[in-house]
Amino acid sequence: MSFDMETQYLGLQLRNPVTVAACPLSGEVAKLLELQAAGAAAVVLPSLFEEQIEHDELEVARMLDLWALSSPESPGYFPELDNYNTGPEEYLDLIREAKQSLEIPVIASLNGCSPGGWVKYAGLIERAEADALELNIYHLPTRCSESGAEVEQRYCELVGSIKQNVDLPVSVKIGPYFSSIPGMAGKLAATGADGLVCFNRFLAPDVDLQNLNYEPALEFSTSSELRHALRWIAILRDQLELSLAANGGVHTSADLIKALLAGADVVALASALLQHGPHRIAELIQGLNAWGEEHEYESVQQMRGSLSLNRCPNPDDLKRANYMRALVSHTPK
Amino acid sequence: MASLATVDGNEAAGRIAYAASEVIAIYPITPASPMGELSDTWACAGRENAFGLVPEVIEMQSEGGAAGALHGALQGGALATTFTASQGLLLMLPNMFKIAGELTPAVIHVAARSIATHALSIFGDHSDVMAARATGFAMLASACPQECQDLALVSHAATLRSRVPFMHFFDGFRTSHEINKIELVDNEIIRQMLNQQAIIDHRRRSLDPDHPVLRGTAQNPDVFFQAREAINPFYQAVPQIVQEEMDRLAQITGRQYRLVEYSGHPRARRVVVVMGSACGAVQEVVEKLLEEGEEVGCLQIRLFRPFAVEQFVNALPESVESIAVLDRTKEPGAVGEPLYQDVVAAIHEGWSQARPAPRIIGGRYGLSSKEFTPAMVKSIFRHLQQTEQKRHFTIGIYDDVSSTSLPWDEDDWREPEHVKSAVFYGLGSDGTVGANKNSVKIVGEETDLHAQGYFVYDSKKAGAVTVSHLRFSPRPVHSAYLVRKAGFVACHQFEFMHKLPVLDVAAQGATFLLNSPHSANQVWDRLTLDVQQTIIEKKLDFYVVDAHRIAREVGLGGRINTIMQTCFFALANILPRDEAIQRIKDTIAHTYSKRGQSIVDRNFAAVEAALDHLQKVEVPQLANSQLHRQPAVSQQAPDFVQRVTGMMIAGKGDLLPVSALPVDGTFPTGTAKYEKRNIAQQIPIWDADICIECGLCALVCPHAAIRSKRYPVEALAVAPNAFPRRQANGKSAELGSALTIQVAPEDCTGCGVCVDVCPAKSKSIAKHKAINMQAKQEHLEQQKTQFDFFLGLPEVDRTSVTTNTVKGSQLLLPVFEYSGACAGCGETPYLKLLSQLFGDRALVANATGCSSIFGGNLPTTPWSVDAHGRGPAWANSLFEDNAEFGLGLRLALDVKRDRAVQLLRSMSDQVGAERVESIVGSQQYSELDYQQQRQRLDELVQVLAGAEGADVEQLRRLLNNLARRSLWIVGGDGWAYDIGYGGLDHVLASERDVNILVLDTGVYSNTGGQASKATPRAATAKFASQGKGIHRKDLGMMAVSYGHVYVAQVAIGANPAQCVRAFHEAESFPGPSLILAYSQCIAHGIDMTTGMSHQKDLVKSGFWPLYRYDPRKAEFEDHHPFHLDSHRPSIPFREVALKEARFAMLARTKPQVADRLLELAQSDIDDNWHYYEQLADIERGCADLETMRANG
């Protein structure tokens, strides 16, 4: 009997549990087609950044205005062009084109910077007929007076307002830094989130020793990073109905299998694809299939969460945060 | 119903020219450039002409080139046009004679502008078109934007039928830039007006190998004359054809024009004859005087050439007794100006009435856009009543030299009740003009009211003040003069209240809106006494709004336009308030949607917030302010500066009498320092503890507002408290034991370039540098005191400074300071460096362009003098001839030197042969040698002290020419690459000792960023709105090909040391030198603060390789004259280019086009680099070096 790899994610039926995370590769339809051919079950497009749109619009306006109409000799210094392509249109076109070209579900990703902006762009994305929406929430508190509760409140209000305004399935890509990840996940689920992506890899800048300032630093993930997601997915799996995606650190079929066992519905790949190319997906799927068959699993459905906190044989090890000598019991329990 | 639009004269004429043409040759020149720019934009957008095709629009290298291309296109059988003004028209003259001589239908649209005489002026009068009146072109004058459109069409129609080419002209700025409501004609009407058979005939006459003809023959005395006369019937037919076309237009549109149009009393006794925009004022006065029972009239001339004698005489009432003919031009030495002469001749030839012919006098008015007002017209009509009349008068000035002027009283006129007028004071960068253009559009296009907008700018590029004059009326507005008494006055920048006479223009009981950081309760005490008094006396309705705060809060930065516009409509009562607000929002949506929804949203928010924050000020009954308006210039300024320059700075130049002005356009230098403009919000403050004394901040400062000085520490005995300095150590102590870097706080523009380049950072606070931008208000008083003291510190001994280093060069006094250039300008640092190194011995020939405007636009000049009174002698001849002009100066210097040598040698016995030879033989390439020569010459003066005789006297006057003279030919790339290239090439070939400095921005910066041959491939620019498709010209290599020319390509921000070295090498080179200096410009769309660091990236990308080609090395060193100073390209061009909006915009708008062009641009760079690398290896000689040395 063959191993059934189908899975469900955000209410979407997927042919296997390997999806493509928002990354530069998913921004071009040609690449998306390659990824689909390699076996990807769904793709998340790169994020539409509200801040970027506003920045671009302001830059265009500033450039056209800054020196305009200040000299008798020149009404301005740039030719007025037909269209500056500043708005979200380019992104919405990408959604529409991806939807037309692909058979697998297309998930849009959004990073807003104002409450109105999130809702507005979510609506536009829905109208462009994306299959689902991933919210790439990135709030970096910098004031000591800002409490965790305020941050959580902000996340929940945001998700709530989007769920009220669009009918799309919505997943939230959260960071690993909450006082209580299960608490936060529970609140998001209660607010209506359909899925969680664990976790967003926040890229911290590096110090440039030459210029003595910070510079953006982009590094690929490694398999060891996955362990973070494994633990929290295993902990959340038993308590929440919503979809769970493991993101960050899935590079090998072993990583994929681990994520599924912990309770992920899907994994999302980015670094692995950027490093090795789309064919990596096929290798992962092949590996999963071989492992499933070898270990006589019927389906992904069956193995999914079999190592969750409640179902694993050693939950204490999962819960332990620091290394300590193994506690040996000498008496029967 | 015809569609209505509010457009300016340029657009009105440009639309027709575009629709009626197949080939359009363009070249930028103020104020005609917008017609070319619109044509290029429309063609790029695929807009069709009246024949359903997109015209070929091509930019040429000069107006001469445009006229040549026009001539060719016409001979090739195309319908062709061009646009120009002023010197541009002069460059077209030879072709115009040809085009007319060959009876070729064509139209040139001219935004008429002054011709440069004693000075350049970009403003309007008829001196250019009048200089072209002998060409054989018919001349049709439009008086307002509506006529610009209609008579443009009549010109295109009439030229086809008559075969006589037309010059259609209108007043530069006053009409070309006035926006007014007009009824548009569409392509269908244009097609109807253009005679199809005439087009076929035109094509039939074209050069065609299937029907070959010969045209452009050389003729001999036997036939030339007769052939010239053969043309007469065509000219005789023109008036009737033009009238017929005018009549046809009237049938279609209902607007009837006549060749000469009389309006006024049917039995008028006094008539003013006038042409162009001044008709508006004359007709208004005539209307008013008729109401008062006076018998006056106005005769408007539309067709000036061929002069329609019959129609002219017939149009005059036979009752006329005296005529004043007004000319907007001056022909020194002529009996009278052209229109006057034609009127006199026409009356002489055509007057057949029973009554005696009228008395005719001629008046000049309105030169260089001098105001021409109804009050002046009244004065003219009054003068016509007098028995004693000035046969040739002027109006609008006070001529106390030749007593030509008529007196007039501005209070003698009140604008009609039906006109609502408003005046707005703003800054160029705050969007005031844009908002007012919008307001005119809103009223003009959305309501039944007529609207007029006219905008006045000052000549500074940084911190330019704009004044907008708006009129609204139920009747068409033809008042082509500034608003004198406004019912609404707005001041968009609070600090103007302390500098400018903002409320002079307010009518009694007017509404006054002030953008104020102070609330209604607090603002009164912040006003100066005179402002308080005016508000009380004129009973002004006074409102404030804190527009800057609102703009910041809604995310619009410094753009206060929407807020102020909203307040204007809320207060001015032109439209019902709600309707006005809705229309503002509609306009915002329309205008800004292309730029993005967030811009629209923020402007909407600004509208709402403006209404919420508009406050009425309760005006106290008493003026009691302790504040007073700042004087225009300090009382320490020289007499001329106080008397003349100061008036211009204060905006009162109109009041200066003729006697106050120099007769020949000669002005003192060193005047910018008296114009304290105080435009920076933040200024750099020096931290002596951190400074590493590199000199970069002073080097890059575009306004010489950062100075470094080394001096003996003893000089600080009387220093103000806490005067910052660094104690010298080691070798530098020889130059002076202390060093101070000081900002000129009132001259700094706040660009921040100095801070950007400062390499010294605090060890404990990484963001704190040795120089930091800080709020000016907190430092102003202290920095002023420090700067005054700093100026008095002794200058360094020039001979002890290593001037060929960055650090050394920056210890030298700049004699180019505080120009009006843009904040962060990339050109000025080079000029300042030049002035530091060679200013005391330099002559500068400056091509027209940015550098001539910030260098020589009155009221002041940045070119200055040192303590000995020596400094650059500066002149601007023209745009196209600068290299030749500079060469002429060189020749004159050489002649004077040779004569001095000759005289000196002849006195060898008297002064000593050794002395003679040491003076004559001195090369003066080093500072020491130069100063020693100065000393030798001083000694010579002593030796000659008692001597007498003509030769001695001559020598005394010439001997300064034995000190080295450094001749600099300066200009931009528009000059060097395009219009002046022929001359530049000739001068390079001349082997004369000239230094050519090209301030290469890669665009025509001064006229607003049109593409030149230096524009990089893939950049958008005006005239290249789809991205420049062809690669940049390599001017440096063209010069290198001569072998005897010193050539350097430099970028002061990328490699300052190489730049300083190149200046020295170029100057000391005995033959021609060419320095191509990369200059960032606002037209690039970069953050000007980081312009210098951006240069580094450009050099790293290989876009601007640094090199020096020194023919001296060819002969005397290793035979490798070409030295590459920059490294192999290390970053892709695309990466650097996209940091500039001119590239990034194309990548946004047309990504595929941008990709292709950027790839080609990269190939250009790769290929160039490969070529340069090979050049660096080649060995080459220079046979001319000896000759050049001997000449030098």
Broad CATH class of the largest domain in chain B: Alpha Beta
How many DSSP H or I helices of chain A?
12
Q: Please state the second-level CATH architecture of the largest domain in chain B.
A: 3-Layer(aba) Sandwich
Task: Give the amount of beta strand of chain A, in percent.
Answer: 15-25%
CATH class of chain A: Alpha Beta
As laid out across the biggest beta sheet of chain B, the strand order is: 1-8-17-18-16-19-20-21-22
What does this structure look like?
The complex is a heterodimer of chains A (333) and B (1192). Chain A has 333 residues and is α/β, with parallel strands linked by helices. Chain A has a single domain (7-319), classed as TIM Barrel (Alpha-Beta Barrel), CATH 3.20.20.70. Chain A has helices at 29-37, 50-66, 89-101, 115-127, 148-165, 181-191, 226-237, 253-262, 271-276, 279-294, 300-303, 315-319; strands at 7-9, 12-14, 18-20, 42-49, 106-111, 132-136, 170-174, 195-198, 206-208, 213-215, 243-247, 266-269. In chain A, the strands form 3 sheets. In chain A, strands 3-4-5-6-7-8-11-12 form an 8-stranded parallel beta barrel, surrounded by 9 helices. In chain A, strands 1-2 form a two-stranded antiparallel sheet. A two-stranded antiparallel sheet of chain A has the order 9-10. In chain A, helix 6 links the parallel strand 7 (170-174) and strand 8. Chain A is globular and about 95 Å long. The two termini of chain A are 40 Å apart. The model of chain A has no long low-confidence stretch (mean pLDDT 91). Chain B has 1192 residues and is an alpha/beta fold. Chain B has 7 domains: 4-252, Rossmann fold (3-Layer(aba) Sandwich); 258-412, Rossmann fold; 420-616, Pyruvate-ferredoxin oxidoreductase, PFOR, domain III (Pyruvate-ferredoxin Oxidoreductase, domain 3, 3-Layer(aba) Sandwich), CATH 3.40.920; 631-668, Irregular (Pyruvate-ferredoxin Oxidoreductase, domain 4); 671-812, Alpha-Beta Plaits (2-Layer Sandwich), CATH 3.30.70; 897-962, no CATH class; 1001-1190, 3-Layer(aba) Sandwich (Rossmann fold), CATH 3.40.50.970. Helix content of chain B is 39%, strand content 16%. Chain B has 42 helices and 37 strands. The mean pLDDT of chain B is 95. The chains are: A alpha/beta (333), B alpha/beta (1192). Chains A and B meet through helix 2 of A and helix 2, helix 15, strand 17, helix 20 and helix 40 of B.
